[in-house]
Write a structure and sequence with these properties.
six-stranded parallel beta sheet, two-stranded parallel ribbon, 5 helices, 36% helix, 16% strand
Length: 232
C-alpha cells in the first residue's frame, strides 16, 4: 500500500509497536503517529475534538491516508477499573469509558475518513475487544468497558455503511488484538491462558496481517487477531 499510514495512540504499547512495524515495512509513503502525550503536529487527544481536527488538517497536507488505525483504549486509570458488580456503577466513570472507547474513535473517523481518495483501497481500523460482543457475553461485569466497546462496534458498522457510499473500496472495521502485554492488561494477566499473552510487537504484526487480508465485504465487521470474525 502507498499513501499515508496513520496511527492514533502511538505512545501506547500496541500503538508504538504498530508505528514501528509500519515504518519498518516501508510500504507507505509516510507514517504519522499521533498521541495525547506528543507535542506539536503529533499531538492528538481523543477527548479534544479540536486536536483531532488539527491532526487531520496536518495529514491533509501530504499523501492521502490509505490506513488509519485507532490503537487506543481505556480499561482502568490507576484509581478505577472495570466494574465487578452493578453496585460499582459510577456515572463519571461510565462517561469516561464512552469518551475514550467510543466517542474518540468516532470523531477520528469523522475527520480522517474524508481524507481518503475515492476509488482507492483504504482501511480504517479501531481497536475493540471481544468483551464488547453482546452474543459472547457469558460472565457479565465490566459494564462500562463492555458497553463502550459494543457501542464502538455499532459506530464502526454505521461508519462503514456511510463510507461505502463515498468510496466503494473503503474498509472500516474493529479489531480485537487479543490480550497484549501492556499497561492496559497488566492487572488482569494472571487469568490469561498460557500462550495467549502476546508481546506488543507480535500483536502489531498479527493485526497488520489481518488488515492486509481484508476485503470490501468485510467492512463493518469485528475481527480478532487471528482473522476470525467476532459476533456482535
Amino acid at each position: 500500500m502507498s499513501g499515508a499510514a496513520i496511527v492514533i495512540g502511538a505512545s501506547g504499547g500496541i500503538g508504538a509497536a504498530l508505528e514501528e512495524a509500519l515504518v519498518d515495512e516501508g510500504a507507505f509513503d509516510i507514517v504519522h503517529g499521533f498521541a495525547r502525550s506528543r507535542g506539536g503536529a503529533q499531538h492528538l487527544d481523543l477527548e479534544d475534538e479540536a486536536s483531532i481536527a488539527a491532526a487531520a488538517a496536518f495529514v491533509a497536507k501530504g499523501p492521502a491516508p490509505t490506513l488509519v488505525i485507532v490503537a487506543t483504549g481505556l480499561l482502568h486509570d490507576g484509581a478505577r477499573g472495570p466494574e465487578k458488580s452493578m453496585r460499582d456503577l459510577d456515572p463519571a466513570w461510565l462517561m469516561r469509558n464512552f469518551a475514550v472507547n467510543t466517542i474518540g474513535p468516532a470523531l477520528v473517523a469523522k475527520h480522517f475518513l474524508p481524507l481518503g481518495a475515492k476509488g482507492n483501497r483504504a482501511v480504517f481500523a479501531a481497536l475493540s475487544a471481544r468483551v464488547g460482543s453482546i452474543t459472547d457475553n457469558k460472565m457479565g461485569g465490566w459494564y462500562g468497558y463492555r458497553a463502550a466497546k459494543a457501542a464502538l462496534n455499532m459506530m464502526i458498522r454505521s461508519l462503514a455503511i456511510e463510507e461505502n457510499r463515498r468510496n466503494d473500496r473503503s474498509i472500516v472495521v474493529a479489531l480485537h488484538p487479543g490480550t497484549v502485554d501492556t499497561n492496559l492488561s497488566k492487572p488482569f494477566q494472571g487469568n490469561v491462558q498460557p500462550g495467549q499473552l502476546f508481546d506488543a510487537g507480535r500483536a502489531a504484526v498479527q493485526l497488520l496481517d489481518v488488515i492486509e487480508g481484508l476485503k470490501v465485504p468485510d467492512s463493518g465487521k469485528v475481527f480478532a487477531w487471528d482473522g476470525a470474525e467476532i459476533p456482535a
